[in-house]
Write a structure and sequence with these properties.
488 residues, mainly alpha, two-stranded antiparallel ribbon, 24 helices, 2% strand
């Protein structure tokens, strides 16, 4: 027994009281820790009534049963750990956490330094143990019944001014402090974790360009769940910004995939999530990027005036410096204005997009959300089609090696819709069929198929008997089962 500690009899009385009051082992350990002057680690052992030898035997039995490896522990080492003369290795902390059904925070070993056995210090945080359960890795979730009981206890003590500061109240005071410490400790995300997350987001942005939207959406959801777990706990400001930046990018990718799949309701909701995350970050270019990307949804499925509004908001946020959001906002505005018949304003916006792009540094253009030469040409072609200047369009489509699989198809569909509005129904149907045929089946989603169907729907009934129209109708009928598979 270390100096200043109560005798084992005190811990025994707490165990007896715990049985009568139906406390959990964690509550019992906290009471012993708060009253008896022992470490949290030792309090866990005393709460179970184990001797040091029994604790080592239980640890060895646990490790053997669950194939956790031979524990590097002994009675002498346990005494040293319990009296803060040494710290166990991270692997040993994980084993002890399993033994006591807790984690590094509840053991009093979170965010601490430990000896790795080679004389070097290693930082230990509660979330660093890969074999912990998800709840343990985040730190224990608050027990709302326990919290209500604690508040009632302190409220009663406050009203009963003559109530002495007994062992239970001391234990609850200590428990309150530990809850705050746990909140602080569980917010620890290592630089390595953040670096890996940044790399993963960049990989998704690169792969997204060529990937089919549905499997990519599933992959994104798995990643979003992990990021949400990290964001849900308190983080230092810099770490929180990086997590929110990753959340924004993953939400944008998810929204874009859902837009391609034709689920406009969920796409709109995910753009809202991206907006919330980017607003929390507070970085204006990131906020501008979200608005510029969101402008695509009403362009393909909704109100063109909303596209213009979002594009202009993106340009305002992006400011005068050349950047992807500024160039994309101007290009998106040009394309929407051209379709709305505001040709002069569209020319001005397109010229602005080209001017911004000419001043931008040349970077990796095979990355989602980066405004590249290919993206500029894509928006330029869409604008020129609506301006009636289609000479360059077919040449661009024929020579396009864009990794954005459906870009040429979308341009062809723009051209087909423009022709249909001018009365060139047969040529419009041929272009729409060309667009559908050149898209791989896994990419032939609602954003492509529904636009071709809309083309047929806008044709006068008599024109739908044209050979090209019947051909397109049959092709769309064949596309039905594929589309049904791809809808979320």
């Amino acid at each position: 027994m270390a100096r200043g500690e109560h005798s084992p009899a005190c811990a025994r009385r707490w165990r007896e009281q715990a049985v009568s009051r139906q406390w959990s082992l964690w509550q019992t350990a906290q009471a012993i820790h708060g009253c008896c002057g022992v470490s949290l680690l030792k309090a866990h052992r005393l709460a179970r009534g184990w001797s040091a030898r029994q604790a080592i035997e239980e640890l060895e039995r646990l490790c053997e049963t669950h194939s956790l490896g031979l524990p590097r522990a002994s009675i002498d080492l346990l005494n040293a750990w319990e009296n803060n003369r040494a710290r166990p290795r991270p692997q040993t902390i994980d084993q002890i956490a399993r033994l006591y059904s807790g984690n590094a925070v509840r053991l009093g070993l979170a965010a601490d330094y430990c000896d790795d056995g080679d004389g070097q210090n290693v930082v230990v945080v509660a979330s660093a143990h890969a074999e912990e359960t998800p709840t343990q890795a985040r730190g224990p979730a608050p027990d709302h019944d326990d919290e209500a009981e604690r508040r009632a206890l302190f409220h009663h003590a406050l009203l009963s001014s003559g109530l002495p500061l007994n062992g239970r109240l001391l234990a609850e005071v200590e428990r309150t402090r530990q809850d705050v410490d746990r909140t602080l400790a569980t917010g620890s995300v290592t630089e390595d974790q953040l670096d890996r997350l940044d790399e993963q987001v960049m990989r998704y942005r690169r792969e997204y360009i060529k990937s089919a939207p549905l499997p990519m959406l599933y992959r994104l959801m798995l990643e979003v769940a992990e990021v949400r777990r990290l964001v849900s706990t308190r983080q230092p400001a810099l770490s929180q910004r990086r997590l929110l930046n990753a959340t924004t990018m993953l939400a944008l990718l998810s929204a874009d995939a859902l837009m391609k799949l034709g689920d406009t309701r969920q796409a709109h909701a995910w753009y809202g999530t991206a907006r919330t995350a980017s607003d929390d970050v507070g970085e204006v270019r990131l906020r501008a990027l979200v608005r510029a990307q969101e402008a695509m949804l009403p362009y393909y499925y909704g109100d063109l005036t909303e596209t213009v509004r979002l594009a202009r908001e993106a340009r305002m946020l992006a400011g005068s410096a050349p950047s992807s959001p500024a160039a994309l906002g101007a290009a998106a505005e040009a394309r929407a204005l051209a379709r709305m018949g505001q040709h002069q304003a569209a020319r001005v916006a397109l010229a602005e997009a080209e001017r911004i792009f000419s001043r931008m540094p040349r970077e990796d253009d095979n990355l989602a959300f980066r405004f590249s030469e290919r993206r500029l040409q894509f928006y330029r072609m869409g604008t020129l089609i609506e301006l009636g200047e289609t000479e360059q369009v077919q040449e661009w489509i024929s020579g396009s090696s864009s990794p954005y699989t459906i870009d040429p198809a979308l341009v062809l569909l723009d051209q087909a819709a423009h022709l249909a509005r001018e009365g060139g129904y047969e040529e419009a149907c041929r272009l729409a069929e060309q667009a559908l045929v050149q898209v791989p089946p896994e990419h032939r989603t609602s954003i492509v198929v529904n636009r071709a169907r809309a083309l047929l729907a806008m044709m006068p009934t008599g024109q739908r008997r044209l050979p090209a129209a019947r051909h397109l109708h049959d092709l769309l009928a064949d596309a039905g089962p594929q589309l049904a598979v791809e809808r979320p």
